[in-house]
Task: inverse folding
């Protein structure tokens, strides 16, 4: 049984942040080893089609719940396009990095569409690594995937969580006119922490401008972003980030607890 928060006797806060000590996860944040037919069916399907998911690459602790679903319920996964290697190295993320990742798989848009069509989903989230090594940052590859999906199921709702494309409006426009419903790009953290949390090429104002541009290009889009909590930000900074997002026309915001994926990554801070 999970120990209630009020009865937990373990430490929830480091006495010295600089000590390098890592706290043990409290029981309410622990997850069972993923099992079940839905989980294994989805994993096998992804491997057969050589598709990657952010669930695996980011070492998400909730993978068992999302992939497992129930025997009669819907299992979900977030497909990660353009390979499993990113050209950027954000200090919160465990995805592999390289200056020049392997070339894109030209069959991936069709494979992705085939997999999602087989799952019978009503809503799907497509995300990707950053590919600064490509002339268009991979925008056309993502857009092609959206079109392939829509050709198989015109009623499916598609959310794309995309890179900033170095602020290039032509790349943003390719995605915005591809047929998706939700254009998402994550601000990740507050202005003060951006230089120490995100890759140097990821700028706070650039991310805001990209979201505003997507809405301007296609006013029918829902724009969405996300902030991580637990990197040392203050309540006032979070409130300001929320205001900044709203001032740039962002419709939806999600807030998530940052969880340190490995010892090499940033510590969780209050």
Result:
């Amino acid at each position: 049984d999970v120990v209630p928060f009020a009865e937990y006797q373990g430490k929830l806060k480091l006495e010295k942040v600089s000590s390098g000590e890592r706290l043990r996860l409290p029981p309410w944040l622990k997850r069972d080893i993923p099992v079940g037919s839905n989980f294994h069916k989805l994993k096998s399907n992804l491997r057969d089609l050589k598709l990657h998911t952010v669930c695996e690459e980011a070492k998400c602790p909730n993978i068992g719940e999302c992939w497992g679903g129930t025997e009669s319920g819907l299992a979900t996964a977030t497909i990660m396009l353009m390979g499993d290697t990113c050209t950027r190295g954000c200090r919160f993320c465990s995805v592999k990095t390289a200056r020049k990742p392997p070339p894109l798989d030209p069959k991936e848009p069709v494979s992705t569409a085939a997999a999602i069509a087989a799952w019978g989903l009503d809503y799907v989230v497509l995300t990707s690594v950053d590919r600064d090594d490509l002339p268009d940052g991979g925008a056309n590859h993502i857009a092609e995937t959206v079109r392939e999906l829509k050709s198989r199921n015109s009623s499916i709702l598609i959310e794309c969580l995309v890179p900033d494309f170095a602020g290039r409006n032509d790349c943003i426009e390719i995605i915005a006119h591809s047929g998706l419903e939700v254009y998402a790009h994550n601000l990740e953290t507050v202005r003060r922490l951006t230089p120490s949390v995100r890759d140097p090429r990821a700028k706070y104002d650039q991310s805001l401008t990209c979201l505003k541009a997507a809405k301007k290009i296609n006013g029918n889009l829902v724009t969405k972003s996300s902030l991580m909590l637990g990197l040392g930000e203050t309540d006032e900074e979070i409130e300001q980030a929320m205001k900044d997002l709203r001032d740039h026309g962002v419709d939806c915001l999600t807030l998530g607890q940052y969880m340190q994926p490995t010892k090499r990554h940033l510590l969780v801070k209050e």
